[in-house]
Amino acid sequence: MHLEEATWTEVRDTNPDVALLPVGSTEQHGPHAPLSTDARIAEAVAREANGTTDAETVCLPTLPVGVSEEHRSFEGTLYVSPSTFRSYVGETLRSAPADRVVVVNGHGGNVDALHETCAHLTRDDDAPFATYWTWWEAIDKEAADVEMGHAGAVETSVLLHLDPELVGEPLEGAESWGEYIEGAPLAYDTEEFAENGVVGDATRSDAETGKKLYDEAVGSLVRLVEAIADL
Amino acid sequence: MHLEEATWTEVRDTNPDVALLPVGSTEQHGPHAPLSTDARIAEAVAREANGTTDAETVCLPTLPVGVSEEHRSFEGTLYVSPSTFRSYVGETLRSAPADRVVVVNGHGGNVDALHETCAHLTRDDDAPFATYWTWWEAIDKEAADVEMGHAGAVETSVLLHLDPELVGEPLEGAESWGEYIEGAPLAYDTEEFAENGVVGDATRSDAETGKKLYDEAVGSLVRLVEAIADL
Amino acid sequence: MHLEEATWTEVRDTNPDVALLPVGSTEQHGPHAPLSTDARIAEAVAREANGTTDAETVCLPTLPVGVSEEHRSFEGTLYVSPSTFRSYVGETLRSAPADRVVVVNGHGGNVDALHETCAHLTRDDDAPFATYWTWWEAIDKEAADVEMGHAGAVETSVLLHLDPELVGEPLEGAESWGEYIEGAPLAYDTEEFAENGVVGDATRSDAETGKKLYDEAVGSLVRLVEAIADL
Amino acid sequence: MHLEEATWTEVRDTNPDVALLPVGSTEQHGPHAPLSTDARIAEAVAREANGTTDAETVCLPTLPVGVSEEHRSFEGTLYVSPSTFRSYVGETLRSAPADRVVVVNGHGGNVDALHETCAHLTRDDDAPFATYWTWWEAIDKEAADVEMGHAGAVETSVLLHLDPELVGEPLEGAESWGEYIEGAPLAYDTEEFAENGVVGDATRSDAETGKKLYDEAVGSLVRLVEAIADL
Amino acid sequence: MHLEEATWTEVRDTNPDVALLPVGSTEQHGPHAPLSTDARIAEAVAREANGTTDAETVCLPTLPVGVSEEHRSFEGTLYVSPSTFRSYVGETLRSAPADRVVVVNGHGGNVDALHETCAHLTRDDDAPFATYWTWWEAIDKEAADVEMGHAGAVETSVLLHLDPELVGEPLEGAESWGEYIEGAPLAYDTEEFAENGVVGDATRSDAETGKKLYDEAVGSLVRLVEAIADL
Amino acid sequence: MHLEEATWTEVRDTNPDVALLPVGSTEQHGPHAPLSTDARIAEAVAREANGTTDAETVCLPTLPVGVSEEHRSFEGTLYVSPSTFRSYVGETLRSAPADRVVVVNGHGGNVDALHETCAHLTRDDDAPFATYWTWWEAIDKEAADVEMGHAGAVETSVLLHLDPELVGEPLEGAESWGEYIEGAPLAYDTEEFAENGVVGDATRSDAETGKKLYDEAVGSLVRLVEAIADL
User: Fold this and answer.
1) What is the pLDDT along chain E (231 residues), one digit of tens a residue?
2) Rg of chain E over CA atoms, in angstroms?
3) pTM to 2 decimals?
4) E182 vs D contacts (CB less than 8 Å)
5) D74/C8 touch (CB, cutoff 8 Å), yes or no
6) Which of B35, B101, F28, F188 could be bridged to F74 by S-S, CB 3.0 to 4.6 A?
7) Which string of b and e fits A126-152 if b means at least 16 CB within 10 Å?
């Protein structure tokens, strides 16, 4: 069930077991990929799993703005503070029409905030059990011989599968995410280590790989929601 | 320019004068209209104005969850506190790629929070000038012989124009919004005065009226953003 | 019962049904009317209704500082943020010696904050039922042929009835409140549209009209508290 | 200058050096004294000093609700949290029409919060210099052979001077404030050690002593504001 | 029982009646005494009482940073806001393995915040009973002919007893703490009245007096925790 | 320089380049290791690096209570909310006597909060550059053939090197940290997957390995602070 298209009486009559909340970001993804990349992929995966699973699930609307301050120097990046993000996600989940919720996440910068939010809700007897799942953690990137990076081969491939008309000429970017000494971060903003905003080599992207990764992600999410529905 | 489809380099090169932020809600709209009604119409109007105006505008992604606690007893309604809504909208606007922003609003319950947020940003020299506009305030409901209500003839007509496949059999609802004595509210939750969630008479809806109202709203918003671009 | 003059044992023995909390502001009211105009009228109306009604009511002390940032450029205006105002009013009401409370309001800028506060309290089982009433919304301004404005004919007339020695030469001010395009506000501070702080034509004021309006307001509030005492 | 009776143009033309903010509480003062005792005395002293001093001062309206949770079990006591009190006082002082402010305090429970608030404002270059003064700390209670307590001989005497019609039969109360072991408090609420709410012996009150104490307090405050005006 | 050296199973098996939380500060104590003076003495007293008392107590780890903004201009002073200190102390106490807790305090600047925190916890049925005790309030300074001041004869003497190797040449400092007119503070930061940071005459310190004062403090705390264990 | 033993004049004269803040937790570490394990190791490593490095560093006092709610069901665990921890750490770092700070962390549950805090400080021009380093991330656990776990072979070995008298009979615990489906966490509290609180096999601990790991950690931290001092 897709909440945005349902009426309240349909939700009442269906009484879903698990709610999915797609969460992404609106942030730079290099000169070749759209600002909505993270929200777009999270939404596509969540909706497809929602339409595929045997569990009684409901997919909530996508929250498009996340914890992206690290990209703030690149035009078009939208962001809120971690504290505001936690409140907005957490209160939305509290009001969800199911007592088990899964945040379907498309942005690495959201993960810490989602962990804190989901733990807090789950410990509260008056709130739903909550967990979070990040799509690219669920796929076998090594088998596909692609690296995650940022706007790199993994994300660009999936975009070439889902929305090829939104993808420009894929580019090479910085070799790795961030600067570290002895494991301690020296830089918190992307512009300090990635001139065009890309991390990794997006020229290694193709739509076929993208389809494979996407299908893997959907399969993983389907297994997760079915397991949670059975808890 | 539609931010979700643009890259950061396109935003940088365009350098928009005015950003539009569609804001709605996900809340009950009676047994005949979808939970996304408010977000859906705000988004449609904002995107159409964004694509029509002569001003250099950018349309941001739609924020789908608003101040809807009054509908909480109807299944599927999502809501956050006014305080969290103010923070999420306000910080999103602070990061917008324009120094003038217009919130395009589709939900009455958001208005007070938007006023407070936009005033606060505008008074802050480090934040954009911000204003807010609610689509049904801009149309001549009397001329069209329809009343606003909630999921009533105005909203249902516009939905019949935009997304007829999502609209069920329109219904009659409560005669008026809320209970008052001497102008003081006695009830804060919809269930206290509207059994099926509808206020007004949605049976008076039709798609033709909806198109007229919608076009009027788009026209008004176009005039607003052009005026603001010229400030 | 007037709380400020009572002892705790008298409150215990009386056990009031409804508490009235006058709330105003201390803000510019033009060169002719005192900064306390809003608090003064709210207090007078609340005390008179409290002394007149057949219900068992208690009038709390007047809160003199409200949401008046819009007048900050006029000397002598005091203000707190909406958030602080909500907390101060809300916590005061939680501690009130009655399980039904009515905020008697004298300042338009307080209304949004009072709505949010009263809804929040009413939804909380551990707090009193709360509503708010703004005196000039309860009177027939058209019948009296006066307009509200700010420090305009309505307020100045009531002041001429209540405290004529505090009123200087009434003045004309701006023709209307604020600047708008297509219903969207362009200005949040009074100085942008009212040079002397007045909105409307205070030269149309007189004490006789003031007495009429004042009596109407008191009558309306008496009816409200009696209805609430009977809920 | 009394702010409540002034217009904004008068404040602008006078341009005061020091603002006085009377702050009290609305809380039980035994079965013989009014709930407004603390606000009432603070207001009287502040207004008299304001009218007497040679400095250019302005007296702001009295804030009637303070940090009185310790009296919550006695009917009619109003209170806010220390945090809300700090915000309401602090923001009011920030907006005061003078760059030096003195809080004229009538309630012991407010002192810690006033210290924190005044220190915070004074350290902020964008806020006024702020200090606070509690009337009974400034008088020679030993010379007058009266003890402070709560609703005891000091407060009751001053009330007998200022508002004798509001004072009932003075009573004896608990011998001392609170319960302590080795200096550590065991009780935070008055009801745990004072059955009728009184601490000290109010039967030792008389109006003549009250006048003496009151005049002393006013004299002290006058000296304070004159010194601050000269800083 | 010393919590830092215990395992969770030992705490479970012991099930203490009272928890002690040493709280100090890291702030300037003149050119002769270490920045940790307040934390160091509070910790020593708490641990000794914990090891001496007949009650079943547990000593928690020392919180080293307190409300010391007044010393911020002296290098090495660490501080947090009163609000953050209240939260950190209060939440630590909520999680303590006993339903009665005593904060053993070594810094005057913490007292107001501790009062507010302990009152708040004690009034909350889901939190432990909490009180606070400041070591130098419990000793007979007059009998020992020493004055408290800041890094003065009392503190320096105790340091000479506990950690003589950390004490340099004791110095004379300002004659009294702060500047006041009519009891109202004019200065909130130490640098305004104490050039080297010392208040009082530390040259009057000696280790023997320090031992005496220290033993007195420990004795007082032992009596306190035994009384609280018996409540 | 060890801040706790220094005077303010010594700090002023030394003017350190980098401040180290040890941060740990007080939480269950199984039936064999002390509750202070995380704080104890972080403190030891920080102090040793501070005493070894050629850079001008200052070691601040250890913050003993962290983000440990996941262990709350095991007696003796102390914890604060992530929000309070961020404030306490962040404000302490703001007041540190160096414009570059390194948090030396001993508890995995603190990492997300430290990242957010250090990023926030570093982005603020009025705060120091801040980074964080977790000791066991810096060592070659594979080479030493030990696994981290919780109170497992890594931590227990280091304790056997540093404080053998505090270590009981090492135990085996749960095989892995937490329960997950498809990478999504199902449990947020340790008790759900580790009956005695241990994760990993502490019976594989020995002091010699502990010394090796400890020396590695100190070496890594020394290199980090020297690099940061040279930035």
Assistant:
1) 999 999 999 999 999 999 999 999 999 999 999 999 999 999 999 999 999 999 999 999 999 999 999 999 999 999 999 999 999 999 999 999 999 999 999 999 999 999 999 999 999 999 999 999 999 999 998 888 888 999 999 999 999 999 999 999 999 999 989 899 999 999 999 999 999 999 999 999 999 999 999 999 999 999 999 999 998
2) 18
3) 0.98
4) 133, 138, 220-221, 223-224, 227
5) yes
6) F28
7) ebbbbbbbbbbbbbeeeebebebbbbb
